[in-house]
Specification:
The chain has one domain: Rossmann fold, CATH 3.40.50.300. The protein is 58% helix and 12% strand. The protein has 8 helices and 5 strands; from the N terminus they run βαβαααβαβααβα. The protein has a 5-stranded parallel beta sheet, sandwiched between helices. Helix 1 packs across helix 8. The longest helix has 24 residues.
Length: 189
């Protein structure tokens, strides 16, 4: 199965992606992990990405696309994958479609974890406090959420129109959310 997981910061994407990928026997591919691996290994793409990351800027689509393209060629991706954090732009959706098409593959679905924004803000503020991240104030968190929705709204609509979007309530106990995802995608656990 080839899936993309989407949702705002604090929706539990990473937690659910790890559980679902394990159930499916496919890799959980996080763009953050790909960036860190390329940077730590000093690959040419990692050196390029580091320039942007060190400046606090987004890594450009070209670099991100190249890293994802390379990762999807690994043997563990043959039976499928769960992408987390990619695609984030309409251009990246097109690039992912081209990557899959060139390998005679396609996406099986796009999971969007939906959440109550006030609940997520409270969760992220609590997490920031527990982790000593004083820069993650409620205002900063709300702005990150606004940016997320501005950037991803077109992707959500694009995937909905393609019949790939499955929305699942992301609030509640981890096992309950996992159960909803398993039901929505008819995953055998």
């Amino acid at each position: 199965m080839r899936l993309v997981i989407m949702g705002p910061p604090g929706a539990g994407k990473g937690t659910q992606a790890a559980v679902i990928a394990s159930m499916l026997g496919v890799p959980h591919i996080s763009t953050g992990d790909i960036f860190r691996a390329n940077v730590s290994q000093g690959t040419p793409l990692g050196v390029e990405a580091r320039k942007y990351m060190d400046a606090g800027e987004y890594v450009p689509d070209g670099v991100t696309n190249a890293m994802v393209r390379d990762r999807l060629t690994h043997d563990d991706c043959r039976p499928g994958f769960l992408l987390d954090g990619y695609p984030r732009t309409v251009e990246q959706v097109g690039e992912l479609n081209a990557m899959l098409s060139s390998a005679a593959q396609h996406l099986d679905g796009v999971l969007e974890l939906t959440v109550d924004l006030d609940e997520v803000v409270a969760r992220l503020v609590r997490r920031a406090s527990e982790q000593g991240r004083s820069d993650d104030t409620e205002d900063v968190i709300r702005r990150r959420l606004e940016v997320y929705f501005e950037q991803t709204a077109p992707l959500i609509e694009m995937y909905r129109s393609q019949g790939l979007l499955v929305q699942v309530d992301g609030l509640g106990e981890i096992a309950d959310v996992t159960g909803r995802i398993v039901s929505a995608f008819a995953i055998e656990d």
